[in-house]
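Before relying on records like the one below, remember that each one covers exactly one chain. Contacts with other chains, cofactors or solvent are not represented anywhere in the record.
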Amino acid sequence: MNIEQNIMDVEIITVGDELLIGQVVDTNSAWMGKALNEYGFQAVRRTAVGDVEKDIFAAMDEAKGRVSLVLLTGGLGPTRDDITLRTLCRYFDCRLHFSAEVYADIEQMFRSRGREVNALTRLQAMTPDGCTVIRNRAGTAPCTWFEREDFVLVSMPGVPSEMKWLMTHEVLPRLAERFRRDAHILHRTYWVRDYTESELAMRLSGFEDELPPSVKLAYLPQAGAIRLRLSACSPQEAVAAEAMAVSRKQLESLLEGHIFAEEDKNIEAIVGERLRKQGSTVGTAESCTGGAIAALLTSIAGSSDYFVGSVVSYANTVKQHVLGVSGEDLRQHGAVSREVVEQMAQGALRVLGCDYAIAASGIAGPGGGTPEKPAGAIWIAVAGSDGVTSRYHRFGAVREQNIQRTTMMALLLLLEILDKKETGI
């Protein structure tokens, strides 16, 4: 149990060698944790294990000693390395049997796709006799619900789309019914600029000391900004709402002028909403980021409303002949300079015909630096009808981090300019 003993603790187990070797990133756990919280459950531990029977068995056994509810994903496919179902049968002392209902679902799905069920796929209709089988309308592997006294384990496919369908339409409603608890959890997320994590913690030290037991504050730092998550929990919804309202007012007063967004969304989504609201468009001229800024902006559905295109001007010849950067400035100042990045942004405005253009030029690393311009030296500029704003940054020598940080700082600079336009500052 958790805050005030009214939140149900849950453990999540993900199965698959691909998760351990880094071939696949575990996005399931993050999604499940958020979805569970909205129903009054709290994920308190996440465990990843490979496709090894003894390891899956041990993970389930250890979790059973800590919590009353375990959610497990993965290892339910038709191939030999998918051994979760067999392990579940051993753990709960039951056997597999053929389910005509599950097989009918599989056949129907295959027919709708113009395909025939083969022998391996037919195996997905084998289900344990010691559980409740929940039919999967989004895939072939069924969901299984095991219950022994006060312990519940729910096993779902590892395919994210199938897991999400099952959680949304079947598992969460059943869990809410099975574990009836008066738990009301409220969250509020703030995006804060102009502070490092330690500076912000010092600024909010007194505020945190005075928080009631039912309210928590969490720090989620990113390059150039920090997300603060304020959470309130109570058996009574009205009590949680009142605690949140009081804490929100105090926090917003302490950070007035530094909060630039109050929503649990990524920066790229926030930027997109600002652009759409203002009826503005954006494009990019990218060197060291190689199109990463454009990729992040277009990762948002509906980004065609405001994103027009990109020029990946990695070579100086492209900077000069496509974006119109001065050859003399390239020779005199180099590609990583204020003069060049500002001309890149202005060139993108002209070439792409957008309202704003983001440009980035730097040394991503780990090599290619000089004492004057080491790896991690980055110039970013944003051009618009009111002129060009540029910033210099010094990051580290890790290439991937430099690209990520440059991308984030570029979007934050655009957001700052958009906010100034909106407020008239």
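The chain has 16 helices and 17 strands.
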